[in-house]
From TrEMBL:
Belongs to the UPF0301 (AlgH) family. It comes from Hoeflea algicola. InterPro entries: AlgH-like. SUPFAM superfamilies: VC0467-like (SSF143456). This is UPF0301 protein OEG84_23240.
Length: 203
């Protein structure tokens, strides 16, 4: 399991302000997985994709008989249920051909990175095989691509009133009502959309 020093925005939401001019991030909710002096990385949580997990695994060589390096605390639902229900979303505009799984901490492998006390990130094929075999995490989403910032870039954008931030909540991370997620995060912060133009960047 990977170990690292957590940044101050690790495990936080970023909520795009009305002044966000980049259409790729308009009205987005982003979960920050890594934040340091070297930059930041996160995943958009409200851009669902029409691709189904069952279609994805059909296009990958996921031999269910290969040895798995991951483990989970208990056996999950059957293969067909996992393949049908596991959500796939657009995580961001960077490296969209690469997949990441943000998930609950009941699945661990050598490449799994804890993000906060409850959530982990795994980006290897082992977790896809585990999900296909009904041995994956209890909760999770697959994200294609990610959002990235260079050194100091996110701090500059927040100072320019591009983002609000607040601690993330697992129930919102895994909520599949994507159309309501943006307003739900704002309501959790005690903010209404009409108030956003007067906000200064941090919750």
């Amino acid at each position: 399991m990977s170990r690292r020093t957590r940044g101050c925005l690790d495990g936080h939401f970023l909520i795009a302000m009305p002044g966000m001019t980049d259409p790729r991030f308009e009205r987005t909710v982003i979960f920050v997985c890594a934040h340091s002096e070297d930059g930041a990385m996160g995943f958009i949580l409200n851009r669902p994709q029409p691709l189904r997990f069952s279609e994805l695994v059909e296009n990958l060589d996921l031999d269910s008989h290969k040895r798995r390096s991951g483990s989970n605390k208990s056996r999950k639902v059957g293969v067909s249920d996992c393949a049908r229900d596991f959500p796939i979303q657009l995580g961001g505009p960077v490296d969209t051909g690469r997949g990441f799984v943000l998930h609950s901490d009941d699945y661990m492998s050598e490449s799994t990175m804890p993000v906060n006390d409850d959530l982990c990130l795994t980006a290897t094929v082992d977790i896809l095989r585990a999900i296909k075999d009904g041995q994956g995490p209890e909760r999770g989403i697959m994200l294609l691509g990610y959002a990235g910032w260079g050194p100091g870039q996110l701090e500059q954008e927040m100072a320019a009133n591009a983002w609000l931030s607040c601690p993330a909540r697992d129930d919102i991370v895994f909520d599949l009502d994507h159309s309501a997620k943006y307003n739900r995060v704002l309501a959790h912060m005690g903010v209404t959309p009409a108030m956003l133009s007067t906000e200064t960047g941090h919750a």
